[in-house]
Amino acid sequence: MSGHSKWSTIKRQKGAADVVKGRVFTQAARAITIAVLEGGGVSDPDHNFRLRLAIEKARQVNVPKENIQRAIEKGKGGGAGAMEQVTYEAYGPGGAAMLIEAVTNNKQRTVALVKNLFDRAGFALASPGAVSYLFVRSGIVTVPKGSHTADSILEAALDAGASDVVETGDMFEVYTEVGKLSEVKCALLDKNIVIDNTEIIMKPIIPVSCTADELRHIDQFIENVEGLDDVHAVFTNVGN
User: Fold this and answer.
1) Where does this protein reside within or beyond the cell (predicted)?
2) Within a 10 A sphere around the Cβ of 158, how many other Cβ atoms?
3) Domain span at residue 223?
4) Residue at which a domain ends, from 53, 76, 99
5) pLDDT for res 85
C-alpha cells in the first residue's frame, strides 16, 4: 500500500486503471468535504492545510473544478444534501480495534450499511469512546527511501516538528503533530526530498498482534467496509 501508513487503509485515489473514474471522483470529493468539515467550515485552502492536500489529490486524478467547488460547499453545509462526518468504533478478533470514518447526508442509511457488515463478520460495534482512546491523531509524510537514511530524513524535518521516522518496506514514514504537518512537508521539500504522500491518520498508541487467520478475517472485513461509498477511512491497531 505504497504511500499510506500501515495503520490506515484510507481509500486511495487509485486512478481509472484500478477503479472506475466516477468512483475516484466521488472519493476525492468526499475527502474535500471532510477537510472542510474538520476545518470548522474553513473553505480557503490557504488557511486549511488538510483541504489543500485534498484539493491537490483531486487535481491529480483530474476531478473537474466544479466538482471540487461542490464538495467544498457540502462541507460548509451549503446546497442540497449537506454532509456530516460520523465515526464508528468497533472491536474485531484478537483484540483488534477499528475506527471507521464516513461522510454522509443520511446517518441512518450509513449506520445500517455498516452494521450489516459487522453482523455478517461477527464483529461488535462499540459505544463512542470505547475504542478511540486507543489512537492518537497524527500527521504523516511518506518518503521513498532512495539514498536516504532514517537519520537524514529526521534531521531534515526535526526543526519543523517531526517527532519520529519509521522504516516501512521501501518507504520512510515521518510522523508529526497534525498542526506541524504543513511545516514538516515544506521542510522536506526544501531539502529536495521527494514526497510520496501526505495525510492525517489515527495512529494506535499500542499496536496489537493477531494470528494469520484473524488477520485474514480483519482484512476481508476492511475490504468490505471500504466498498461502502459513504466510508472514507478505516484505521486499525493491528501491528503485524
Assistant:
1) Cytoplasm
2) 15
3) 84-133+206-236
4) 76
5) 87
